[in-house]
Write a structure and sequence with these properties.
The chain is about 30% helix and about 30% strand. The protein is of the alpha/beta class.
Length: about 280
């Protein structure tokens, strides 16, 4: 009996999930591997971060998708090593052979080599990070409500968003909505002190969309109280401040980094395969 070919897909995001379903529909024995057992609807992470949606509202169980196909299975595991020569994947749960391999490890935050950004700014690329932002923001309002020092209270109530793309714009607008909701919970807090600052290095917001939409967005955000700073670059992030290229230093305990993304390179070790003069060369 002819052996059934096996395909392994690493990564349960939109790309990995679609690839696994498509390959399984071709009749191959397909295994989907991810460290989490759910798919995250990434476009709505900002609503979780601003306490507008519960996390479970944007998390979809991967096993619910898997059970629809008799050729598709799921394994929750960390991939530690891939041996391309022997076509073997070593995971935290088992060693898995494969005939075809798809690496769909998604995207990650791009920090643009800004000192301190990766260490001290909040990223928003997965559900855990969005929940961390939400908890931090709510904690800032709690501390500000009990803080007697006006300077430190202002720092707690200053929220800086770096990056004027769709995610940054959505986050800024949703923080304004959160501020309005919290007015009822903290009647003794002066919400005039609460600042939401959107910093964009380019001359317009939403640079990938029509310029008219970018101009409208600037007017709308400023109208609802967001401080929009265009053509402003961040040069440094510290635990208590954001440094701008103009020399301005913004005192804050909250920096949310939405200034772009890049492909997430797999962090597991692997043999690197390259073609040299018609031969496949495997290098550690």
């Amino acid at each position: 009996m002819k052996k059934k070919l096996r395909a392994v897909v690493v990564g349960g995001g939109f790309g990995g999930m679609q690839a696994a379903q498509s390959i399984a529909n071709l009749g191959l024995d397909t295994l989907l591997i991810d460290r989490n057992n759910y798919n995250t609807f990434v476009p709505l992470l900002y609503q979780v971060a601003a306490a507008q949606l519960e996390p479970e509202k944007i998390a979809y169980p991967l096993r619910t998708i898997v059970r629809r196909s008799e050729n598709l299975r799921f394994l929750m595991a960390e991939v530690n090593h891939i041996n391309f020569t022997d076509q073997l994947i070593e995971t935290s749960e088992a060693a898995i052979p494969y005939d075809f391999l798809v690496l769909a490890t998604g995207s990650q935050t791009q920090y643009l080599n800004v000192p301190g950004a990766e260490q001290y700014a909040f990223s928003m690329r997965n559900l855990h990070q969005a929940i961390a932002i939400r908890n931090h923001i709510l904690h800032c309002f709690e501390k500000a409500n009990a803080e007697s020092d006006e300077f430190y209270r202002q720092k707690l109530l200053t929220f800086v968003i770096v990056g004027g793309g769709a995610t940054g714009v959505e986050m800024a607008g949703t923080l304004v909505e959160l501020k309005r909701v919290l007015l009822r919970d903290y009647p003794g807090l002066d919400f005039q002190q609460a600042r939401i600052i959107l910093v964009q290095s380019e001359s317009a917001l939403l640079p990938d969309l029509p310029s008219s939409l970018g101009r409208y967005t600037i007017r709308k955000l400023r109208h609802i109280g967001v401080e929009v700073q265009l053509q402003t670059r961040v040069t440094k992030v510290t635990p208590r401040s954001v440094h701008l290229q103009s020399g301005e230093i913004i005192s804050t305990t909250t920096v949310i980094w939405t200034a772009g993304m890049e492909a997430a390179r797999p962090r597991f070790s692997a043999d690197v395969c390259t073609a040299t003069k018609g031969k496949l060369v495997v290098q550690p």
